[in-house]
Amino acid sequence: MSAAEEVVAEGHQAVEAVPKRAMTLGTGTSLVVLAALLIVPMFVKNFVIFQMTMLLIYGLAVLALNILTGGSGQFSLGQSAFYAVGAYTSAVLMEHANINYALTIPISAVVCFGFGYLFGKPALRLSGVYLALATFALATAMPQLLKLNFLEHWTGGVQGLVVTKPDAPFGLPMSQDTWLYYFTLIVTIAIYMLSVNLLRSRSGRAFMAIRDNEIAASSMGVNVALYKTLAFGVSAAITGIAGSLGAIAVQFVAPDSYTITLAISLFLGMVVGGVGWLPGSFVGAAFIIFVPNMAESISKGLSGAVFGVLLFLVIYLVPHGARQIAIIGQQLVGKFKKN
């Protein structure tokens, strides 16, 4: 059963299977969300705009993991490594080669695609927990690799690199944070639409066939090795773009910013948002950004414990994440319209 169909309501009562079009939001809901994303920054402070920018960036990284895990069924705990490669690619190109920040983003995507594709090749022999352990090792090793002496001239070593935040182009009357938010929003919308089209395409159907039954997919003529490595490459490319945008937004890159904690947070965001449901990627990103702050406001000394309790409640009440809430809400609206 596909991730878009395997939804169980509270009390273990089966709910109606979700059609393929429900992998994204409806047209009306999408327009409302887009209008809110365009208008809200005009009425809030720069710090809130920065938080919204980071929500979009982490949402992209979670979406990339969703394509890999929810799309092709491959588990990964190494997304922080691809995020770091994207961030450092942009930082090095901006600070050492004086390349425009916008041009560094597609370069990061290409570099990370190659990195992910090459990593996916040997990973073909692994699956399940063994693949998760391999990607875990990658995430653990990346911060140490970035600290190597022969790379220190480029990466800044332990101290990292400071990145210059760009000004709004063409003399537009907006702050740096506001411009970067709208720039990130444009990139996010473009990647989101491409991701939806990818999963609806022949390649996307191949991903899902491999996820559901690898042997059956192979017997139907799907090139399993090609599509599994392609899924790794695409996921790494999108994560690299998120890393580039994150480096520009935060204005700083350092090895210890991209530890295994980041990888686990992204995986957590995917689970909370709903595995295989692309809009849930941004719900999961909001969870990993705002809920720790809420936990700290409740108890600074026990913020970790409070966060754990909140996470447990979310997983217990809605085991399929935000996707489950959206499906139940959609069904209630449908019944209301019939009545």
TrEMBL record:
Keywords: Cell membrane, Membrane, Transmembrane, Transmembrane helix
Any GO CC annotation of this UniProt entry: plasma membrane
InterPro entries: ABC_transp_permease, LivM-like
Keyword Isomerase: no
Cell compartment(s), UniProt: Cell membrane
Ranges annotated as spanning the membrane: 22-43, 49-68, 99-119, 126-146, 179-199, 230-254, 260-290, 302-322
GO molecular function: branched-chain amino acid transmembrane transporter activity
Bilayer topology annotation: Multi-pass membrane protein
Protein name: Amino acid/amide ABC transporter membrane protein 2, HAAT family
Naturally occurring in which organism (per UniProt): Bradyrhizobium shewense
